[in-house]
């Protein structure tokens, strides 16, 4: 098995930056829908993950693509791959 192909199997998500928690660290919220177990209506859920932003490119409100990685710290298990969309400036 080629090493390059196994690296591409990592989980990727697209979410919105909710806060900058320090140098090179952000919190990303991603939303998904899941059916209610009894009534089958789709329910909106969200999960917050801590991500490593090496270049400090993202700001609050930006849409980013994150990828799972080795543990960077106690909470950080994701890293920013790309900035998908900048937040509108007021």
Compressed to H and E, one letter per element, the order equals HEEEEE
How many helical stretches? 1
What general form does the structure show?
A: globular
Trace the largest sheet across and list its strands.
1-2-3-5-4
Q: If classified by CATH, what would the architecture be? A: Beta Barrel
DSSP E strands, number: 5
Mean pLDDT: 92
What name is given to the CATH topology? OB fold (Dihydrolipoamide Acetyltransferase, E2P)
Fraction of helical residues: under 10%
Rg, Cα atoms, Å = 15 Å
CATH superfamily placement? Nucleic acid-binding proteins
Low-confidence stretches: none
Strand-residue proportion: over 45%
Main pleated sheet: 5 strands, mixed, barrel
Question: What structural class results from the helix and strand content?
Answer: mainly beta
What is the rounded distance between the termini? 50 Å
Q: Could you explain how this protein is built, in words?
A:
- By secondary structure, the protein is mostly beta strands.
- The chain has one domain (11-85): Nucleic acid-binding proteins (OB fold (Dihydrolipoamide Acetyltransferase, E2P)).
- The chain is globular.
- 6% of the residues lie in helices and 52% in strands.
- The protein has one helix at 3-7; strands spanning 12-22, 25-35, 42-52, 63-68, 78-85.
- The protein has a five-stranded mixed beta barrel.
- The model has no long low-confidence stretch (mean pLDDT 92).
């Amino acid at each position: 098995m080629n090493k390059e192909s196994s690296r591409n199997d990592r989980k990727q998500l697209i979410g919105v930056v909710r806060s900058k928690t320090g140098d090179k660290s952000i919190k990303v919220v991603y939303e998904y829908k899941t059916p209610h177990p009894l009534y089958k209506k789709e329910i909106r859920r969200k999960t917050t993950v801590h991500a490593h932003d090496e270049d400090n490119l993202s700001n609050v409100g930006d849409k980013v693509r994150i990828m799972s990685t080795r543990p960077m710290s106690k909470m950080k298990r994701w890293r920013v791959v790309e900035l998908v969309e900048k937040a509108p400036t007021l």
